[in-house]
Amino acid sequence: MSEAKKRYDRILTLLTEHHALYQKVLPLIASENIPSPAVREALATDLGNRYAEGWPGERVYAGCAYIDAVEFACIDLAKKVFDAEFVDVRPISGVVANLVIYTAFAKPNDIMFGLSIPCGGHISMGRARFGGTAGAVRGLRVEYFPYDYDELTIDVDKTKERLRRLAVDGKKPTLAMFGGSVLPFPHPVKELAEAFHDVDAKINYDAAHVSGLIAGKTFQDPLREGADAVTLSTHKTLPGPQHGMVLSWERYADEIKRATFPGLVSNHHLHAMAGAALTLAETLEFGEAYAQQIIKNTKALGQALYTRGLKVLGEHRGFSESHILWVDIWEHGDGGKIEGELEAANIIVNRNLLPLDVRMGRHYTHPGGIRLGTQELTRLGMRESDMETIANFIKRVVIDKESTTQVKRDVTDFRKDFQQVHFCFENATQAYKYIKIR
Length: 438
Ligand SMILES: *Cc1c(COP(=O)(O)O)cnc(C)c1O
Fold this sequence. Notes:
By secondary structure, the protein is an alpha/beta fold. The protein has 15 helices and 17 strands.
């Protein structure tokens, strides 16, 4: 066999092994999900090899007849699912969707409000010093939202006070970026919309994480609360392919379209766009039941972990109103160490900074917390009683420090019954089955 063929085979083996692994683990990363078999089919189509620059119906390439029809269907579904006046489905990811908004609504050196990373902000809203997209790429000056450490959300009164003080210094923000990557509770968009609009700032809500919950009507509804736009990823709680979108109002359509193309995309990953369209159709049918079960599962897992002695944040608020739990793990080992121990037991979570970690001298490689998400478990058909079982697995590793070999065996055994994707039209192909078309 040639050297090249050996390398080729090795890569394909790694891919199949990845699939075999995911049939056995508990996937608890809050930013991931498993798409339906129809979406995986779309991802393997020829659309991923085509270009369709421009707006559907006004492309600058030939051969787009079916692509245009799919994109119009995607736009139409997104408008319906999110009750949005205008939608651009071309941004290829959540970060690119945010850049579209930074381009449409702000210019370099403008001031933008956003959450700091320890308080749940995403690096795409970060300062230049940390390499954040807003600061380092678009040149925005990022002002942090004051955070309420007990309520685990943005502090309304302190934000208004900061806006007043900035105004006195002649420093008005042009953009407020709500939303984030650790978002157990809704953000006060409604409470702060007027204060930002009064200084002529626009409001964007980054729903990368919670777009599936917004679609399922179980979280806040930023467009009704005063947001000028919503950016999202299509693959976190919305269980689609990796892609992005911007939702907004007709009055901003021109700026957003121009920022997207020619500004930020040339090809826009048409196979993923088609997958997103299918995801939205499934969301229209199953989205509410799915989102409601996520919330029930999150609350059940939060309570079950808390009862077993783990410090889940937000206890007095019922731990979470989203798919996310934030757990202070410090007394059992730092987040990096715990992440590794859990992985050895086939429980996949990520280490995460806690709101006060940086002030306590902790760093993101060894933070005080872990973050858990229930959306993918919910897609696999798990319910509240399964969350009790999972809390036990986690306790055995984190608190009892039991041998991970034994826990791993039990996790793998438990996972055998959950191999199908739920909340979709057709699930004959198992969730993580490797599809060979060679
Ligand atoms: C994940 C995330 C993003 C980035 O999304 P991609 O689709 O990975 O580019 C942006 N904002 C927030 C708040 C996120 O959590």
